[in-house]
Amino acid sequence: MSVTNFHGADEAVPALSGIPTKVTSQSLLDKKLNGRPIAALTAYDYATARLVDEAGIDLILVGDSLAMVVMGYDSTLPVTVDEMLHHTKAVRRAVKRAMVVADMPYGSYHTDLAQAVANAIRFVKEGGAEAVKIEGGANRVELIERLADAEIPVVGHIGLTPQSVHRMGGYKVQGKSMTAIERLIKDALALERAGVIAVVLEGIPREVAQRITAELTVPTIGIGAGPDTDGQILVLHDLVNLTFSGRAKFVRQYGDAAALFRGAFEAYRRDVETRTFPDETESYHLTKETRAVLETATLARRKA
Ligand code: KIV
Known about the structure:
The chain is built from twelve helices and eight strands. The chain is of the alpha/beta class. It starts with 24 loop residues before the first helix and ends with a helix.
């Protein structure tokens, strides 16, 4: 068996029976070129990542939103590299087809460039991520170039960047004034020149997202950025009503896992309390012979 599975660079890799065609940065780019939307979603654990992958989602982001939706913090700021890695590894084990992207958490790339590259390498080497995502625009160019030197593909993220919550003064739609719009366009172009494979556009007006999408060669993936981006991403917990907070305007809820889970947990509690769980069919049994021996031994012990 050969160690590498080499395919011609420009050749589309056919899906082998049962083995889905792997999503790569090239296939994301092809989607943009062919006008086929990219479907992306966050995931943070084995079970959901597996379902997301099996649903044919192209890109799975282990987002730092896990700080809020999984760990219960009120912002993304507290989550650490080790915590993000823990979840990235679980997602990696589940995913066969989608591209797995790990979010670099706040503080992991904001100080020293060498430290930032070392942290990103951990996401690839230990976490099995195929790319990392970092928030910021022109101010991240040097880092993106250093990551490219370390063979790490980067997804950019501009607009409403949750790690900048304190600078922004809250989670507010960005890019509303002409100055802000021009800065966003400059940032997007700087990210592209630096070599990102895609740019997440979050919380910006539809018109601005449309303009940036038209300017860029690499795909844009929107969240709260209207329908004209090359792809869409949502936080999984928002999609299935597991967030326990008011729903943002841009979220469409596709299922109600909270109702499903709550119903199941309450029914289980009732069944335990009424001794209807477990029943005979849910119990293990001794063989007839062993049962007879056990009964005889029990009787003998009672008589003694
Ligand atoms: O952390 C996250 O989930 C994200 C998405 C909202 C893009 O960054």
